[in-house]
């Protein structure tokens, strides 16, 4: 069997629904065997982008190619979805309720009817289905109906169906969003391991920051139909290109900052002097993550008192604010570190934070 291309290029893609423009000049590459997460809020164009790549929605402009094969461009070229060698895992599985689990997976292997196949072909097809069920951790469930499976099991079947034809690219459209928190975490880990071991080129669409940062090799932040930033999870989280990206990617506090009244590499803020990345000039704002903040009991008045304490198990999320609530900051404290409502605290920012000029 010929080896199929497995890297993706999206260049200048624009797409609309009627007169409503959804995607604006979107460009990115996905390397062979890489998992790219497209992270963005509801309505930003994430699912439309997947539909354009899969061939389910026509782009008005731009180019989509798998390896050296152009599957869509702005000049009318549009390869049909079934000829793109792309596997799609939709949000809620979308399994055929009238087919067994094995039947759903076999559907992904093609439309040949079993009665038209010889004994050898039938045996090969059954072996492939059995292997895929083993791969996704559902051995022995081939005869069950989708309604007899849990939500997590149904998503595993949907993944097996998408992998059945050995696609060049796997598209995952928020596949874990309907699952409870515990199952969601375990299934994420299993799917990531499976895709990594099979060296599958993949795109995960999600609005969940933890999911994107925890699963992806790179993250593309999509805001208002445009790629705002693309990079490794660490880079996007620690070095956002804008306040908008920084606020969306993770929990943060934004404070006014003035470098003119501080030593080089520092800025003055309402909570004191804070180290910053780069060399700031002019007034601006800093973005601080809770894990960069350390609270301690105040030895002298600071004007910051504890307003909220939320125990999460491994850590406690503590919020402190001024009396008028105009200035506030959050910190992740050790799980056994206790603060009480109304307690006055001092604040220390332990590492350099990004600065954004006004």
Automatic annotation (TrEMBL):
Fetch the Pfam families from UniProt. Answer: ABC_tran, TOBE_2
Q: A single Gene Ontology molecular function, please? A: ABC-type ferric iron transporter activity
Could you say which EC number(s) this protein's record lists? 7.6.2.9
**Listed GO CC annotations:** ATP-binding cassette (ABC) transporter complex
Per the database record, which ranges form the ABC transporter domain? 8-249
Enzyme class name: translocase
Q: Among its keywords, does the record have Ubl conjugation?
A: no
Could you list this entry's UniProt keywords, alphabetically sorted: ATP-binding, Cell membrane, Ion transport, Iron, Iron transport, Membrane, Nucleotide-binding, Transport
Cited CDD domains: ABC_Carb_Solutes_like
InterPro entries, per this entry?
AAA+_ATPase, ABC_SmlMolc_Importer, ABC_transporter-like_ATP-bd, ABC_transporter-like_CS, ABC_transpr_FbpC, Mo/tungstate-bd_C_term_dom, P-loop_NTPase, Transp-assoc_OB_typ2
Instruction: State the protein's name.
Output: ABC-type quaternary amine transporter
Organism per entry: Hoyosella altamirensis
């Amino acid at each position: 069997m010929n080896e199929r291309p497995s890297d993706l290029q999206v260049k200048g893609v624009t797409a609309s629904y009627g007169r409503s423009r959804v995607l604006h000049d979107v460009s990115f590459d996905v390397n062979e065997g890489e998992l790219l997460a497209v992270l963005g809020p509801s309505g930003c164009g994430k699912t439309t982008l997947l539909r354009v790549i899969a061939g389910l929605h026509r782009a008005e402009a731009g180019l989509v190619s798998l390896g050296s094969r152009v599957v869509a461009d702005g000049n009318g070229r549009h390869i049909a979805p079934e000829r793109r060698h792309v596997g799609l895992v939709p949000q809620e599985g979308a399994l055929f309720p009238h087919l067994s689990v094995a039947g759903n997976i076999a559907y992904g292997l093609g439309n040949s009817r079993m009665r038209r196949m010889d004994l050898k072909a039938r045996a090969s097809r059954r072996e492939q289905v059995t292997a895929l069920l083993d791969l996704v951790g559902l051995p022995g469930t081939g005869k069950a109906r989708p309604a007899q499976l849990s939500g997590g099991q149904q998503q595993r079947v949907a993944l097996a169906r998408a992998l059945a034809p050995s696609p060049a690219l796997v598209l995952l459209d928020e596949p874990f969003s309907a699952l409870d928190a515990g199952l969601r975490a375990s299934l994420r880990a299993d799917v990531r391991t499976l895709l990594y071991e099979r060296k599958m080129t993949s795109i995960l669409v999600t609005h969940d920051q933890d999911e994107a940062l925890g699963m992806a090799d790179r993250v593309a932040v999509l805001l208002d139909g445009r790629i705002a930033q693309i990079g490794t999870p660490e880079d996007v989280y620690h070095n956002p290109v804008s306040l908008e990206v920084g606020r969306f990617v993770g929990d943060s506090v934004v404070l006014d900052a003035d470098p003119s009244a501080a030593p080089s590499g520092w800025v003055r803020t309402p909570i004191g002097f804070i180290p910053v990345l780069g060399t700031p000039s002019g007034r601006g704002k800093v973005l601080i993550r809770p894990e960069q903040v350390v609270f301690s009991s105040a030895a002298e008045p600071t004007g910051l008192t504890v307003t909220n304490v939320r125990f999460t198990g491994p850590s406690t999320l503590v919020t402190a604010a001024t009396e008028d609530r105009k200035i506030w900051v959050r910190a992740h404290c050790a799980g056994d570190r206790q603060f009480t409502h109304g307690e006055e605290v001092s604040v220390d920012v332990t590492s350099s934070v990004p600065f954004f000029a006004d």
